[in-house]
Write a structure and sequence with these properties.
Length: about 500
């Protein structure tokens, strides 16, 4: 990200697709072509791990920090590889172009993958690629596939509620589970093999068109995940109940008057006053995996590495938490020493202290600027473009957690004074406020500008991706194919060239 550039934020699930949810097939390739035609250098998306219905399919509460989401597997490529028949695809239900219906999509995609696996098992002996994949990814895949197999046997219940020998990972119980669930374990390995096979093909497609992929790492992982189950000593859990003693969140902020109690278990950063090496090893593996998957990664809640909000697990809200020092620069120095260059964007929004800014500067990561936060005070507001002192930052019109820009502008909850300041800053009537914001972002000195697709399209609040502190109805918006038009690409390319980001 050394030169001026721009890109678009759109999650995989929001891509156009005939199969009810965005996937790694034709819709993704068409979107990359759209970005290339529009002169964009970056495609940013949300975490791509397997989601859980309990958490409303949030990509930030994944069942694994390493695995890919089975819902993103393209059925057409499965048919092309001979794993399912064209007839099976023709029998698909009618899905909405505009919203993801997870209750309909999950059983449909699961049935397709089961069918594909049955066919695969009949010809598996000839597939050396699968065997090589399983050997190469064994460090995380073995635990993940076993976790998923047991979880299915236990009716998708959280691992803390499994029979004690399995929850506690007693070797004899695990060995018996591997024998008992061998076919199911093979299924989950197969699903990951197909996911990453399709992902690598999409990576090559993007690189051939000079579009870099920006992924996303949530700083925390879900308690009900293969990672916590397999690496319990890395997290702050009660030795007897195996439940978290403390959980993550943030104090009251822009999004919530009572703060946000996320519920993720906190890391055990130190043991006996020194860095906890098993945790550092897990993070090294996590970074290694993500940097094989994407070109750049945004770390969600970067400030947690400087100080994190610790909430007693029995607290119902985040109000009564406390700030605790994180691992700081030493952690990133250790990661860089083991991995090399870390192309990271630091999500440094919310309550940011001088210590957080010092850490971000020391490690050299660009921070984030969000224009929707720029107009609620005065000329000293740090999100106003004239206050961007360092070009090493990424400016967004909004993020997946914000309302769309049009939704923000039309919302009765946004002060009229903020809207007036935005109009004056843009020297605009506000009629096309989304393009005003795009031009402000592109005109800024920020080296990189990212625009959610909803803002390019001028869509309102009904197309918002997520409302923080709510746990229903999020992550469902989809883009219909007709909206990715040649005229939109042409206009975006013109603006990109005008502001020196082509």
């Amino acid at each position: 990200m050394e030169k001026r550039g721009s890109g678009v934020l759109l999650h995989i699930s929001s891509l156009p697709s005939a199969y009810g949810v965005g996937d790694l097939g034709a819709g993704a390739r068409h979107f990359i072509d759209f970005l290339a035609a529009a002169g964009q250098k970056y495609w940013q998306f949300l975490p791509i791990g397997p989601c859980c219905r309990v958490f409303d399919n949030s990509p930030y509460m994944s069942l694994s920090a390493f695995a890919g989401n089975p819902l993103f597997i393209d059925p057409a490529q499965l048919a092309g590889d001979g794993f399912i028949s064209e007839g099976v695809l023709r029998e698909r239900p009618e899905f909405s172009e505009y919203l993801v219906d997870f209750d309909a999509i999950i059983p449909f995609k699961t049935a397709l993958l089961r069918h594909a696996h049955e066919r695969f098992r009949k010809q598996q002996g000839a597939d050396e690629g699968f065997l090589r994949f399983c050997r190469a990814e064994a460090e995380w895949l073995d635990d993940y596939a076993l976790f998923q197999a047991i979880r299915g046997e236990q009716r998708q219940g959280a691992w803390s509620g499994w029979p004690t020998p399995l929850a506690a990972r007693r070797p004899d119980a695990l060995a018996e589970a591997r024998r008992r669930l061998a076919v199911e374990i093979d299924f989950h390995c197969f699903v990951q093999y197909i996911f990453y096979k399709q992902w690598r093909a999409l990576q090559h497609y993007a690189r051939d068109r000079h579009v870099a992929l920006i992924g996303d790492i949530p700083i925390y992982v879900s308690y009900d995940s293969a990672d916590v189950w397999a690496h319990r000593d890395c997290f702050r859990l009660d030795d007897r109940s195996l439940l978290p003693t403390h959980v993550a969140g943030v104090p009251p902020d822009y999004f919530s008057a009572t703060g946000q109690r996320w519920g993720n278990p906190l890391y055990c950063w130190q043991k006996n006053g020194v860095p906890h090496q098993p945790l550092y090893a897990w993070w090294r593996s996590r970074f290694h995996q993500i940097f094989r998957t994407v070109d750049i990664v945004r770390i969600d809640h970067f400030r947690g590495f400087e100080s994190y909000w610790e909430i007693d697990a029995d607290e119902e809200t985040a109000l009564n938490g406390r700030w605790v020092k994180g691992p700081g620069q030493a952690f990133f120095d250790a990661m860089a020493a083991a991995i090399g260059t870390l192309p990271i964007i630091a999500e440094d929004l919310g309550l940011i202290t001088p210590e957080v800014e010092t850490l971000r500067t020391a490690v050299g990561f660009p921070g984030m600027k969000v224009l929707q936060f720029a107009f609620d005070s005065d000329a000293a507001n740090l999100y106003l473009p004239h206050n961007y002192q360092d070009p090493n930052c990424v400016v967004y019109t909004g993020t997946h957690d914000n309302d769309t820009t049009v939704g923000w502008y039309l919302s009765p909850g946004v002060a009229e004074g903020s809207k007036s300041r935005a109009r004056r800053y843009a020297n605009s009537s506000g009629e096309f406020i989304h393009w005003d914001f795009i031009r402000m972002a592109f005109a800024s000195v920020a080296r990189t500008a990212i625009v959610p697709l909803q803002d390019l399209l001028g869509f309102g609040s009904d197309c918002r991706m997520n409302k923080p502190s709510t746990d229903r109805g999020n992550w469902r918006w989809r883009c219909a194919p007709r909206f990715l038009s040649g005229s939109l690409a042409e206009r975006l390319r013109d603006e990109t060239a005008f502001y020196g980001r082509l």
